[in-house]
Design brief:
- The complex is a heterodimer.
- Chain A has a 9-stranded mixed sheet with strand order 2-1-3-4-11-10-9-6-7, sandwiched between helices.
- Chain A has a single domain, classed as Class I glutamine amidotransferase (GATase) domain (Rossmann fold, 3-Layer(aba) Sandwich).
- Chain A has 7 helices and 11 strands.
- In chain A, 28% of the residues lie in helices and 29% in strands.
- In chain A, strand 10 and strand 11 form a beta hairpin.
- By secondary structure, chain A is an alpha/beta fold.
- The relative contact order of chain A is 0.18.
- Chain B is α/β, with parallel strands linked by helices.
- Chain B has a single domain, classed as Alpha-Beta Barrel (TIM Barrel).
- Classes of the chains: A alpha/beta, B alpha/beta.
């Protein structure tokens, strides 16, 4: 069973539908115990880092996600859900995320229009090609995923950057360490490529 | 690198997909959920649903339909038609839309655009602009093209960007449904006037027209007639554009 963490932000139902489209069972839950005991955990989300981190703290869901990761179970973050796996973000200087990934979240420093919205080509890094979940998934054809964001992961060690996109400059868009992985884009809005990515997460045994 | 988008558009009235010429003489083009499902399966980059219902009775079913469409696709979904307030937009987003499109209501009260951008983020706000050439002027028209305004299209698009619109959906009413090609001069002027993406709409009659619009600076091409009635498929459109060097999804 995959627990999809419902911590009071938008964009949750479509994640469950995309997992189901790949033949997987997923449950939206507000119950920390269900997150602690799930086989794997997905943290979705759209919104503000400060609000998201408050919600995770107040509901006890953040601690439950941290415990699941600590117990070695696969945890995936999507968009804001990914950003909340870091400890800090430039979006809300005083807020604290879960600190499950090294690095931090920064705002796009580009003259281009922000937010970055659209289907961006995503290229695996060397670390990504070696990654058990991603390596087999990405073939030779370029993969595009739907991005909507003003902030992105930054200052990670090279082996935690699994794939990059480019918007004014190259930015990490798939990141991970051990049993934790995160996508800056929205797989649930990325059609077949996204459904396949979520399917790979549901089958991943790190 | 961002892919250029191919966006089928469902004009919906009374629970059915319809399509007209110059916004009139509507003909039936099927069930919205069936059409949406098919376009998603064929690889549409995004879907737009515009409620063009003439009456509140017809309109009543729309939110429920938005929910059913959203539940059957895995791509960004824009909903427009009849959105007049932050509350209307919120209802469409809760029903499953990713973005809302505003047109007439934004002309009547431009602050609606900035309020929507504040509430939901500019990535949620599509400003639809319908344009008709009148005596050499690029006039903004509203109310389904029935009403002319004193607004000049290029200046209005600049203002929409400043108000916080995330993208412009630019429809040439002169070309709508005609299949004679997009209004390329209008597109070129718009794309060079604003920094946000401009989606071309109105006039696509063949795949070559899609390429022309991208060449003129459009970030995406919206089309209804060629996909509903003229037998062009989305995979065909993608292959056509890819061969011509445009970055489109595989």
């Amino acid at each position: 069973m995959i627990a999809v963490v419902d911590y009071g932000v938008n964009n949750l139902k479509s994640v469950v539908r995309a997992l189901e489209a790949g033949g997987h069972r997923a449950t939206l839950t507000t119950d920390p115990e269900a997150v602690r005991t799930a086989d794997r955990v997905l943290v979705p989300g759209v919104g503000n880092f400060g609000q998201g981190s408050r919600n995770l703290a107040e509901t006890g869901l953040g601690e439950a996600v941290r415990e699941a990761a600590g117990a070695g179970r696969p945890v995936m973050g999507i968009c804001l859900g990914l950003q909340l796996l870091f400890e800090t973000s430039e979006e809300a200087a005083d807020a604290r995320g879960l600190g499950l990934l090294p690095g931090k979240v920064c705002r796009f420093a580009t003259a281009l229009h922000v937010p970055h919205v659209g289907w961006a080509r995503v290229d695996l890094t060397q670390a990504g090609r070696r990654h058990a979940m991603l390596g087999p998934l990405f073939g030779e054809a370029p993969r595009f995923f739907y991005h909507v964001h003003s902030y992105h992961p930054s200052e990670l060690p090279a082996d935690s950057v699994l794939a990059t996109g480019e918007y004014g400059a190259v930015f990490p868009t798939l990141v991970g360490q051990a049993t934790v992985i995160g996508a800056q884009f929205h797989p649930e809005k990325s059609q077949r490529a996204g459904i396949e990515l979520l399917d790979a997460f549901a089958r991943w045994h790190p | 690198m961002l892919a250029r988008r191919i966006i089928p558009c469902l004009d919906v009235a009374g629970g059915r997909v319809v399509k007209g010429v110059h916004f009139e003489t509507l003909r039936d083009a099927g069930d919205p959920v069936e059409q949406a499902t098919r376009y998603d399966a064929e690889g549409a980059d995004e879907l737009v649903l515009l409620d063009i219902s003439a009456s509140p009775e017809e309109r009543r079913t729309t939110l429920e339909m938005v929910g059913r469409v959203a539940d059957s696709i895995f791509i960004p979904f824009t909903v427009g038609g009849g959105i007049r307030s932050v509350a209307d937009a919120g209802a469409a987003l809760r029903a499953g839309a990713d973005k809302v499109s505003v047109n007439t209501a934004a002309v009547r009260d431009p602050s609606l655009v900035s309020r929507l951008a504040e509430h939901f983020g500019s990535q949620c706000v599509v400003a639809a602009v319908d344009v008709k050439r009148i005596d050499g002027r690029l006039a903004v028209v509203v109310n389904g093209g029935r009403e002319e305004t004193p607004l000049e299209a290029i200046a209005w698009m600049r203002e929409l960007e400043a108000l916080g619109a995330g993208e412009i959906l630019l429809t040439s009413m002169d070309r709508d449904g005609t299949g004679s090609g997009y209004d390329l001069d209008l597109l070129r002027s718009a794309a060079s006037a604003v920094g946000i993406p401009v989606i071309a709409s109105g006039g696509a009659g063949n795949l070559g027209h899609l390429a022309e619009a991208l060449e003129a600076g459009a970030h995406g091409v919206l089309a209804a007639t060629i996909f509903h009635f003229r037998g062009s498929s989305l995979p065909e459109a993608r292959a056509f554009l890819r061969e011509r060097g445009y970055p489109v999804r595989p």
